[in-house]
Amino acid sequence: MENVTVVDHPLVAHKITLLRDAETESAAFRSLCQEVTLLTAYEALRTLPVRSVPVTTPITTTQSPMLAGPAPAIVGILRAGLVMVEAILTLVPHGRVGHLGLYRDPVTHRPVEYYKKLPENLEKRTVLLVDPMLATGGSAVHALDVLYDAGARNVDMLAIVGCPEGVAAVHEKYPATQITLAALDERLNENAYIVPGLGDAGDRIYGTK
Ligand code: PRP
Ligand code: URA
After folding, report:
1. CATH code assigned at 75
2. Nearest-CA neighbor of 166 among 186, 150, 196, 148?
3. What distance in Å separates the CA atoms of residue 81 and residue 205, rounded to the nearest whole number?
4. Could you say which ligand is closest to the alpha carbon of residue 136?
5. Is residue 63 part of a domain?
6. DSSP H helical segments within the chain, as ranges?
7. Domain range enclosing 142
8. What DSSP element (H or E) covers 157?
9. Could you report the per-residue pLDDT of 124-143, keeping only the tens digit for each?
10. pTM of this prediction?
């Protein structure tokens, strides 16, 4: 699949198996989501711009790369994307954070927006959209619409589990979006849940069911 990276690493695979396990309790589930985010963000943020700066080591002076340009924007889709945002901020502490509140209507499975707060000057920033689940892709496409309307010029996406239907929906409207996943699952079921998947990520992270 073009513009899709599925991170292939034993640590990621191991943690995804623990996330899939219906017996994994909320606290462990939340922490595993953060760990998988850290491991996969490494790949998703590979295109961050750098510039060479002089640095004096205890031995000599040399040129060495540092992140360049305005701080990247990390935009989380609430609720479940929140834990991913917090994990990425440990890697990119100067990042600016956007929140987009969306929930799926239980009947239509279409996203309903209830909150939006985005960083300024999105057009100058690298923007990474994060949400653990890419299912029908409705939430991701809605979020990308909002981000491009707000001026973003290049938005990448990081999810923990995706499926072909979600990837196709995103790429039908935004073919250049780079999607990084920890797992690409088989399909959606009749309730628009990912199979085999891990269930409802928000409910499992926050223990609401
Ligand atoms: C989940 C998930 C995504 C969305 C994915 O959120 O975190 O945002 O579903 O589904 P889609 O690709 O079909 O749009 P949910 O709507 O359950 O809200 P929550 O995070 O508040 O639990
Ligand atoms: N949202 C989830 O949390 N899980 C799915 O499998 C699909 C949508």
Report:
1. 3.40.50.2020
2. 186
3. 10
4. 1
5. no
6. 10-20, 26-44, 81-91, 138-149, 164-173, 201-206
7. 4-49+69-206
8. strand 155-162
9. 999 999 999 999 999 999 99
10. 0.97
